[in-house]
Amino acid sequence: MSEIPTCREVERDLVAVAAGEAEPAAAQGVERHVAICRECRDELGRYRVLEGMVTDLRRAPMPGVDPTLARAELESKLADIRSRLVTYGMFASPLGKILIARSELGVSMVRYIDSEASARSHMARLGGDEGIVEDEAVVEPLYRELLDYLSARDTRLRWPLDLRWAGSEFQRRVLEATSQLPYGAVASYGGIAKRIGAPESVRAVAQALRHNPLPIVIPCHRVVGSTGDLTGYAGTRIGLKEQLLSIEGVHVGGDTHRIDRNHMYVWIDPDKEYCVPSCGELSKMPLAKLTLFGSRAHAEALGLQPCQSCRPDLHPIPA
Amino acid sequence: MGRDMTEDAFESIVATHHAEIHRYLVRATLRPGDADDLSQETFVRAYKAYRALPPDANVRAWLFTIATNLSRNHFRAEGRRRRAMAMAAVGATEQGPSWPEGEAIANQASARIDRLVSALPFKQRAAFTMRKVHELDYDTISQSLECSAESARAHVFQALRKIRQGLNDLDGVQTER
Question: At what angle do helices B7-29 and B108-118 cross, to 10 degrees?
Fold first, then answer.
């Protein structure tokens, strides 16, 4: 039989035995020691009493301590964080790889990307304290809707907009006016400038749309120069602008990168009718005053009627 | 990835654990006001990191770890307070926690123990509270305190020993054989 441990050796195990946490060997050592040591036997008893008192702490009320207010403040902080939190995913699309980001408020970014890695570091830089997380599943429904749109199965993206990345109040107004352009329609930068009540600010409008945080969703592809020139899109992606317009039934001259207003139906907002381009003085009016359609169907989808003078319904533009 | 990030999922975590984490923080920080702040901070951090947490992770243990880290940093940041704590530890039995004891006559024993716990150094106080009040396992305690499980046991042992010494009237307890 091994030696009986000393008082000093047994002290820690004594506490463990009282707590019911001792290993069997340690418990045996304590048992053998307290059989011969009155002082440690009493001490074990005291620790057992203490263990009971300590256990009572689990149930004891803490007077003056109330987590209710802290909990309420926490809920409101979390609600605030949730509203600011942006979630994004990256997907393959007929337009190439795209990034879609959304918040509780709505879709906040669509971006054509070349590499996922550089897109990720871009998002991390944007995130800061606001919090940006990558989670495809959260964004997937938007992506599905976008695919339907790009295959012309659907003509509307019903996403609410979160314009947090609009740089200025002016850009916000430009983006909001552009988002009102109907499917299948084309207007000019001057037309958008006119719509926001700043007819002189054509260049500023073009700049604002150059930095559109929500291409496709805010259809800046429907905005062209005063001569019908596509001018540019998402950097050097003018081909995508053509692609998007062609999905919406707007023909673009492949070599010229220009729409041909002489082969498009014309609407002057807020008239109730649409015309062929040769109707009255239309062909002489600046593009800024007009909205053009590649097809009658898209004009009529807005509730517009064929003009009673030029009768586009009877004399449609030859394909 | 893969964590359920619906509002309900995290709200139910707050509903289940906030009160307990708050109680723990009252003991860990010694001040209900600090527990209010740090319990909020614990859950805000948890919310931000929750998505990356493996689906089989023990959420409760994880929250205790965040809360413990925050309290430790809180004390480090307030060196002055820590020195004050060291002073308090000298007169252990005289010092009490700063939350009012009210008329908790029925809980006098608990109040006395809390007074002794409040005088313990941070690691012993946190380890004791996690083990004895919240019944966490030593692995969780060691992760929270960034120490080995053996050290976590030692912290609890030291805490119990000091509390035992502070309760002089236990000296009268004798065991008949």
Answer: 80
